[in-house]
Amino acid sequence: MSMSQNISDTGPRGPKPTRRISRRNIFLYGTLIVISVYYLLPLYVMVVTSLKGMPEIRLGNIFSPPVEITFEPWVKAWSAACTGLNCDGLSRGFWNSVQITVPSVIISIIIASVNGYALANWRFKGAQAFFTILIFGAFIPYQVMIYPIVIILREMGLYGSLWGLVIVHTVFGMPILTLLFRNYFTSIPEELFKAARVDGAGFWGIYFKIMLPMSLPIFVVAMILQVTGIWNDFLFGVIYTKPDLYPMTVQLNNIVNSVQGVKEYNVNMAATILTGLVPLIVYFVSGKLFVRGIAAGAVKG
Amino acid sequence: MEPSVAVKDLTLSFGAVEVLKKLNLDIGQGEFLVLLGPSGCGKSTLLNCIAGLLDITDGQIFINGKNVTWEEPKDRGIGMVFQSYALYPQMDVRGNLSFGLKNAGFEKAEIAKRIERTAEILQIQPLLDRKPAALSGGQRQRVAIGRALVRDVDVFLFDEPLSNLDAKLRSELRVEIKRLHQQLENTMVYVTHDQIEALTLADRVAVMRGGVIQQLSDPKTIYNKPANLFVAGFIGSPPMSMLEGTLRDTGAGMNFVADGIDIPLAGYDGNLSGQDGASVVLGLRPEHIVINEDLDGPGLQATLDIEEPMGSDTLIWLRTEGRQISVRTGTDHPFRPKQEVRLELDISKASIFDVGTERRL
After folding, report:
1. Which residues of A touch B149 (CB under 8 A)?
2. How far, in Å, CA of A246 to CA of A83, rounded?
3. Which of A108, A122, A147, B314 would bridge with A170, disulfide CB 3.0–4.6 Å?
4. Chain A residues closer than 8 Å to B80 by CB
5. Among A84, A93, A89, which residue's Cα sits nearest to residue A270?
6. Is residue A167 one of the residues assigned to a domain?
7. In terms of DSSP bridges, do strands B323-329 and B279-284 run parallel, antiparallel, or are they unpaired?
8. Which residue range is the domain that position A135 belongs to?
9. What is the ipTM of this complex?
10. pLDDT (tens digit per residue) in B139-163
């Protein structure tokens, strides 16, 4: 008697077929679409409004596409909108923000990466205490420190200058960035570090030749966090700088909230989009690395 | 002759936990010493201390007569090979090999010459321009060995170098490491938990447990005359069969007595005098027992339980009075499961341990 007597050639074979329209799929894609609309609708309104002229806006159809596309609001927002007495638009604020963001990002990342490296690989005396204090710093509300910092900056002669603000951003970025870098460097196998020590590399040799080349993703994460954080900052900008050094966000607020004259919604929308453009571009350019770095840094605590 | 590596009263503690306890160890010039033990016994820790990668709590370390206790790893004249290879992923093989030499400030020509020589010894010339990611496990470990080799040091430290490889590659590289040692005649300290590696490679094996060396001896002695019950149980696969009982002086000689068993211990390689009445453990290797179908004669009655054919030989498990005994025998044997047999024990190769001190008598 053949053993395969009961085994017929008909019946299921190969991969199990999946239905395209199932209850599960409808649920899944339905949710995704609703959430996307929820986030994209305001953006759509902003773009559409910024391309309309004022007469068209007064008709009140905020969802309808522009009948007559005009870029005048964008030009005005960039170069001619008034904040108080100045009428040179957002451009000045943009350059101020660039001058604040670039050095803050670079300095904070350099210091934090060395901090994280030292904490992860060189268990120096008091490392644990140092780390605890640093992390504790991440939980102190900013408001508590505003006034003491004003005094410190004044004593240093930096109050009201761009460099004062750069220092403030660097200091406040330190806890979270150090934590980020420490966790990433801890996830790099310890034997690699040991091998480099046997090979005669010192503190900086190991940092520059072994650790840095392996850590591009985490540097991208840190850069994105810092660029968006510092670019979007309003509080420190308004407190620690003077009006002609205001960053873009503060200027945007001043344009949008100006009480004199007609509310130019199209200019406001254009100005807002212009201000948000930098973080947006940074995300789109390095989004993939961002996700990879976040995942890598998040595994070990 | 001056020892190549000397460890004196080495103590290492992490907080309240003492990992190594007053450890002393002399390793001769050109010796291949294996540190063997279960995980957590301190063998890797000891190696890291010798390498200078861990700061010790107390004691001294000498390499070639020089006190290196406070020296940096690079100044100790050692090369180290790690379990995970630890190759620098962003550098190609040439970069990996030259990294240490560049740090030491060697001339370009000298570096090239040394890499050339190392690559030839390890036969990795075709791999020199590849990144570690493009290498197989065996090739990676070869490069890792090369990285130690290229520095031209007196002492090689291996930290479980073969544990990440599959069984076939492991046995191949094992032979290569042994050949390398014969060729270079360097001192090698090799950490492993694999007893086959230890017994095949070593000039001497140090079996460790709980930060203490249990026995330091050549592989033959470790295998045939384990110093205590721990070493006896750890070395050998399957381990020794252990029978508990007491010693009785019959006048003619010492006998091993347990319920249903009474075996004369004539020919035992050890000192049993004055131990009358002592509680002991009798340990026997599987190959030192012979199964006999003829039930009449001296020895021990047992029942066959199961057999494990190993290819080159067969392992037979038997039961006697509720105890398990394993016997190694040829592949062509007449025995059937459940069969009643008689076991003849080769007492001259047996080991007897005191139950209290766990030491071999």
Report:
1. none
2. 11
3. A108
4. 194-195, 198
5. A89
6. yes
7. unpaired
8. 97-246+278-298
9. 0.85
10. 999 999 999 999 889 899 999 999 8
